[in-house]
Amino acid sequence: MNDLADYANQLLAGALVTIELALTSLLFGLLLGLAAAWAKLAPSPWLRHPVTLLSNVLRGIPEFLIILIFYFGLSNFLADHFDGAIEISPFFGGVFALSIIFAAYSSEVFRGAFLEVGRGQLEAGQAYGLNRFQLFCFIRLPLAWRTALPSLNNMWQSLLKDTSLISVVGLEDMLRKAQIGAQYTKQPFLFYAAVALVYLLLLAASNPLFGALEKSANKGFR
Amino acid sequence: MLYDYLGFAFEHGQELLDGLWITLKLLALSSLGGFLLALPLAVARVSPNRTVAALARGYSALFRGTPLLVQIFILYYGFSQFEAVRNSPAWFVLADAFNCALLALTLNIAAYMAEDLRAGIIGVPHGEKEAALAYGMGRCGSYLHIILPRAIGIAAPALGNEVVSQLKASALASVITVLEVTGVARRFSAQSYSTDPLIVAGLLYVAVTLLLSLLARLAERRINCHQPR
């Protein structure tokens, strides 16, 4: 157990990287997912079909493989075109890949949630004289957000767990730190079990947060 | 670009097919084993006995709340820490990368399928449970003949989705050196400094995913064929 205490600082630093990676990817993933959902619902077939196809293809490929493709693909691309002047860090590569994965899945949820918004609600908004932008911000988005939240909670849980995959391309996240500790102390079980516990705690801690979000999104509904 | 992909696929077709075979073996065996494990877990989950229900809930929470990669590491690297494990018959499974990945995938999907089946059991109409009682069936008989078959039908779409997800989860076996599709692609990618093998592997997964979704929908219809629509 003393070995674990020696590495506690390292593991904690790793846990922070894990949380940062997950939150940054969540932010970009949500924005990208919303944009993709908008494209999937666009009247123009030139926008609708390519985005739908891309999202369907991405959802058929293992997350791990997507991470490898985007991370190494981006590295190779930058190396070929900028002669190594620009390199991407595992953190940036991780955010890039995880956001795209999150967007591929969440765009489908957002698309469904936007379709759920009742016509009457939008007409009421129009009757109040809201313009298209206001209609989106005050009527369409909050109502869709409410329908989407339970699925987004599931996706956030997958995202947090998927951050562990970035350790394979060299990010010093919690799992990578545990690997290093396990190698030096020859106590792999102890270290991996400790990391598993932290993941459990992080996921358990995010549940009440989503509960509060759902409660506030359901204001005005019975 | 397309030419590169096709060229790669033809040149290393044999290795890719070998990898695909291992991926499908992992998928089929872990899905089947996970389903058989999920049945008793789901029944335990709705058990009136609080201890049994709590144990089953704990199992699900543990496997659904931690990354699969960590589970694989614990099984493959973690248990080797204990000499008692190394000397036990369990070492036969844990020492081999394929067996270890298979075990992790099986235990993992069982947790997810148990939750789906639990929802299915709860969703069985009350009248059908009463009908079983009226026929004089005990708890065991009614589960075996009435509740579980019906629950499997109700949970079928969710179970199908778990199998499709499992195809994607099986890619993680490559991290502990199993040469399934992703493992083969990673090896070629490292040799050639190119992402083409990874992309070809990705397209292969998309094709298998499409095929699996189709099979799942057919199976679902077959299981529920006696239900009025």
UniProtKB/TrEMBL annotation, chain A:
<dbReference type="InterPro" id="IPR010065">
    <property type="entry name" value="AA_ABC_transptr_permease_3TM"/>
</dbReference>
<feature type="transmembrane region" description="Helical">
    <location>
        <begin position="60"/>
        <end position="79"/>
    </location>
</feature>
<dbReference type="InterPro" id="IPR035906">
    <property type="entry name" value="MetI-like_sf"/>
</dbReference>
<protein>
    <submittedName>
        <fullName>Polar amino acid ABC transporter, inner membrane subunit</fullName>
    </submittedName>
</protein>
<dbReference type="InterPro" id="IPR051613">
    <property type="entry name" value="ABC_transp_permease_HisMQ"/>
</dbReference>
<dbReference type="GO" id="GO:0022857">
    <property type="term" value="F:transmembrane transporter activity"/>
</dbReference>
<comment type="similarity">
    <text>Belongs to the binding-protein-dependent transport system permease family. HisMQ subfamily.</text>
</comment>
<keyword id="KW-0813">Transport</keyword>
<keyword id="KW-1133">Transmembrane helix</keyword>
<feature type="domain" description="ABC transmembrane type-1">
    <location>
        <begin position="15"/>
        <end position="210"/>
    </location>
</feature>
<keyword id="KW-1003">Cell membrane</keyword>
<keyword id="KW-0472">Membrane</keyword>
<dbReference type="Pfam" id="PF00528">
    <property type="entry name" value="BPD_transp_1"/>
</dbReference>
<keyword id="KW-0997">Cell inner membrane</keyword>
<dbReference type="InterPro" id="IPR000515">
    <property type="entry name" value="MetI-like"/>
</dbReference>
<feature type="transmembrane region" description="Helical">
    <location>
        <begin position="85"/>
        <end position="105"/>
    </location>
</feature>
<feature type="transmembrane region" description="Helical">
    <location>
        <begin position="189"/>
        <end position="210"/>
    </location>
</feature>
<dbReference type="GO" id="GO:0043190">
    <property type="term" value="C:ATP-binding cassette (ABC) transporter complex"/>
</dbReference>
<feature type="transmembrane region" description="Helical">
    <location>
        <begin position="12"/>
        <end position="39"/>
    </location>
</feature>
<keyword id="KW-0812">Transmembrane</keyword>
Automatic annotation (TrEMBL), chain B:
<protein>
    <submittedName>
        <fullName>Polar amino acid ABC transporter, inner membrane subunit</fullName>
    </submittedName>
</protein>
<feature type="transmembrane region" description="Helical">
    <location>
        <begin position="61"/>
        <end position="79"/>
    </location>
</feature>
<keyword id="KW-1133">Transmembrane helix</keyword>
<dbReference type="InterPro" id="IPR010065">
    <property type="entry name" value="AA_ABC_transptr_permease_3TM"/>
</dbReference>
<dbReference type="GO" id="GO:0022857">
    <property type="term" value="F:transmembrane transporter activity"/>
</dbReference>
<comment type="similarity">
    <text>Belongs to the binding-protein-dependent transport system permease family. HisMQ subfamily.</text>
</comment>
<dbReference type="InterPro" id="IPR035906">
    <property type="entry name" value="MetI-like_sf"/>
</dbReference>
<keyword id="KW-0472">Membrane</keyword>
<dbReference type="GO" id="GO:0043190">
    <property type="term" value="C:ATP-binding cassette (ABC) transporter complex"/>
</dbReference>
<keyword id="KW-0997">Cell inner membrane</keyword>
<keyword id="KW-0813">Transport</keyword>
<keyword id="KW-0812">Transmembrane</keyword>
<feature type="transmembrane region" description="Helical">
    <location>
        <begin position="91"/>
        <end position="112"/>
    </location>
</feature>
<dbReference type="GO" id="GO:0006865">
    <property type="term" value="P:amino acid transport"/>
</dbReference>
<feature type="transmembrane region" description="Helical">
    <location>
        <begin position="20"/>
        <end position="41"/>
    </location>
</feature>
<dbReference type="Pfam" id="PF00528">
    <property type="entry name" value="BPD_transp_1"/>
</dbReference>
<dbReference type="InterPro" id="IPR043429">
    <property type="entry name" value="ArtM/GltK/GlnP/TcyL/YhdX-like"/>
</dbReference>
<feature type="transmembrane region" description="Helical">
    <location>
        <begin position="198"/>
        <end position="219"/>
    </location>
</feature>
<feature type="domain" description="ABC transmembrane type-1">
    <location>
        <begin position="20"/>
        <end position="216"/>
    </location>
</feature>
<keyword id="KW-1003">Cell membrane</keyword>
<dbReference type="InterPro" id="IPR000515">
    <property type="entry name" value="MetI-like"/>
</dbReference>
